[in-house]
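Show me a record, fold above all:
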Amino acid sequence: MSANAPSSKDIGQCVACGLCLPHCPTFRVTGMETASPRGRIAAMRAVVDEGAPIDATFIRMMDECLACRACEAACPSGVPYGRLIEASRAMVEPLRSPRSRLLKTAGLSTVLRHPRLMKLMAAGLGLMQTLRLDRVMPARLRVITPRVSLRELARPLPDAQGDGPTAALLTGCVMDVAFRPVHRATLNLLAASGYRAVAPAQGACCGALAAHGGRPDIAKQMAKARIADFEHADVVVLNSAGCSAHMKIYDELLADEPAWAERAAVFSQKVRDIIEMELHPPERALGRVTVHDACHHLHAQGIKAGLRDLLRAGGAECVEVKDAGRCCGAAGVYGLTQPEMSARLRRDKAEAIAAAGSPVVVVANPGCASQIAAGLHEIGSPVRVVHPSELLEP
């Protein structure tokens, strides 16, 4: 069995009670046991503990999972489902086609690890979007692709600003090229709240996409690089839910490497999502604001009240979304690999947000932001998608 296989101990924590089923988006859409956490764990058990072969059905079951971890948050037995699904994907990765593995390696190990190349590709995408040439892209790819502003891409982020404990912002990969205004707003908000706000290692990826995509080897390399870049800061700040959730488990990711385990453990304790920070936004009359909880906030990190408290402190009236804990269907590149399911969840989420009735929806994750914006456009809704940092910026 592969060294990357799920552990029998983790699998054994599942008692197949089924309490996860109503929380699983794919099960709720299909009603199929094979599309449920319980069904997927049963398949993992068959392969890991009983020697069943890894076949096309097993691979499809793992790929169809959103890894939203709603099941994990609902599980009374504490099954570490996020760890299980990532290990399962790592286990099947060597069995994928050479073309698939080559493309994934090129994207994760080449593009995301080299900020200049990422920025160059983003500039090309931004030019295509400006000239409306992006219409030639496959629909499933165009929908999940964020808008890139060439003007913002050309503007450098500010140097260190503010006084106090050093709060180092990870600009990330996709966030750095497609959500620059969010970074500016985050740095301004941190500086106004009593921190020395800096953005070292701009364009550096945290490794979450590699971990979710079955490449822990690449994820570990990126984790080591980010620890070296940021470990001297007093606090490491993330304004992307997926990044903060992943960087908080660097200690788990590197636990089997003696040279890094202790550094990773110390580092993970410094990681904070921006909505967990002690911030002091100016109090204004922001009006009604719909709140969208990213899965990596709500389920992976258990963060919910913090976002609402922060918005209320800034003068917003928080409006809840019906069925708020259900994934929007973004899930990294899920819209590319599972376009039908992603489209169904995107439309459901957009309709729920539009029905909430406020002009703005606050979204603190880039994948969710792009997915929800696309969904709102598809149903003809004028609701505007903003990051909490943008809404609260001084």
Q: What stands out?
A: The mean pLDDT is 93. The first helix runs from residue 8 to 12.
